[in-house]
Amino acid sequence: MATKVVTVAFQGVEARRVDVEVQLTPSGAMGGGIVIVGLGDKAVAESRERVRAAFSGMGLALPDKKIVVNLAPADLPKEGSHYDLPIALAILAAMGILPADTLDGWAAIGELSLDGSIVPVAGVLPAAVAVSGFGLGLICPEASGPEAAWAGDDIRILAPKSIIALINHVRGSQVMSPPRPGDVIEGAPGPDLRDVKGQENAKRALEIAAAGGHNLLFSGPPGSGKSMLAQRLPGILPPLSAQELLETSMVHSVAGLIAKGALTRARPFRNPHHSASMAALTGGGIRAKPGEVSLAHNGVLFLDELPEFSTQALDSLRGPLETGEVVVARANAHIRYPARVQLIAAQNPCGRVASLSPLPGTGRWRRVISTSSFPMTMRSVIVSTIWRFAEASMSPQRLKRSRASVTASSRVSSLIRRTSSSARSRGSCSSICWRRSEIGRWRRMKSSFESASELYRS
């Protein structure tokens, strides 16, 4: 007779029911052992070794029979190590150590250590929500009990420290109390907008974006305060509502970012590096983990140095910004993650002048312009140009002349550096002589520009 324990399989933030069926059959000529079937991944296949070691650590011997473990439905992919506990409980029920009807009305999730203790796993909160919908209770690791308790007061939760503690609870020798929900963090004190001196137009744009939930693009030279302003946006946003807190926490639970069951009402703020790939931004990988845009759900996604992101990575955000969700397509499943974010981006316009390079042997110059993705730029409702703080006191005419002279001087310096390095690398006499004459001409132009700049500034 087969014994059955209920567990779950994750597809995004959704948890689908999986039945773990165990049957003891005669070993035959091939000998005994644990056989797991049901389209499991490498972590599921390794469960038999962890279960065998856990039984040995508890002083229990597996029967000298073939133990067949079936994960139904068989066509649903199973990933992760949280199948250890339901497999072990089903084997205990098949061996008669636990009464078969004891596990009726319960679902289990957890990883086993080699000594029989239950290790916390990711995704306990969405599993508890799904199990509550099934009308079942949840058996989870002790460290994950406060997280599972957030699923509601009407769900039964057992959070044993080890399998021995669970067996003692079933026999009545050591009764466990239900876990209590973890702490609610109202929000750690972060950067404050009052720390920003000046930049009244940029702060006004930030306040308008916060009030209306608009996307915002900061454009300005390095050191003008673009990143500083963007990091202070969560501080002026309202805290998460109860529904938003549950949605955001479920995504973080799948990613394994909830510690000790503590939830925070502060808006998420994600700042990925500009070398992040498309899978890192939108989600993906072997187990299709949530990406940065999903981890920033109901919060802020800040893309610093926007033109440095790859075009493929930026274009992958067009769908999430329009629909509010990410669909990770696989051959056997389509996984959905919520992704309602407020996009804040920053870029340096001066990257256009620093990207002039000479074409070898032609005497012409190639202009390589690094700009951000046009569709992403068009999705920025507000575009704010930031100046340096020292420029705020200049008149418009003087500021325009100063910028023109500085831009021309930067252009000349870039050309001199690039031409000199190219001449040294080629080593050709004629090329070096030509470039020396060109360098002299550009240096004279630079000195004239610097003189004009000093005259304008005075």
Going by helix content, strand content and strand pairing, the class is: alpha/beta
Structurally, how many domains make up the residues?
Answer: 3
Provide the spatial order of strands within the biggest beta sheet.
Answer: 13-16-19-11-22
Count of helix runs: 16
What is the gyration radius calculated from CA atoms?
Answer: 31 Å
Cα shape: elongated
CATH C-level class of the largest domain: Alpha Beta
Please estimate the helix content.
25-40%
Major beta sheet summary: 5 strands, parallel
CATH topology assignment of the largest domain: Ribosomal Protein S5, domain 2
- Gap between N and C termini, in Å? 95 Å
In a nutshell, what does this entry contain?
The chain has helices at residues 42-45, 47-57, 84-95, 124-134, 145-148, 163-171, 200-212, 226-231, 242-254, 278-282, 292-295, 311-315, 318-323, 374-378, 396-426, 429-457, and strands at 3-11, 14-25, 33-37, 66-72, 106-108, 111-112, 118-119, 137-139, 157-158, 184-185, 216-219, 263-264, 269-270, 283-284, 289-290, 300-303, 325-329, 334-338, 342-347, 356-358, 365-367, 382-385.
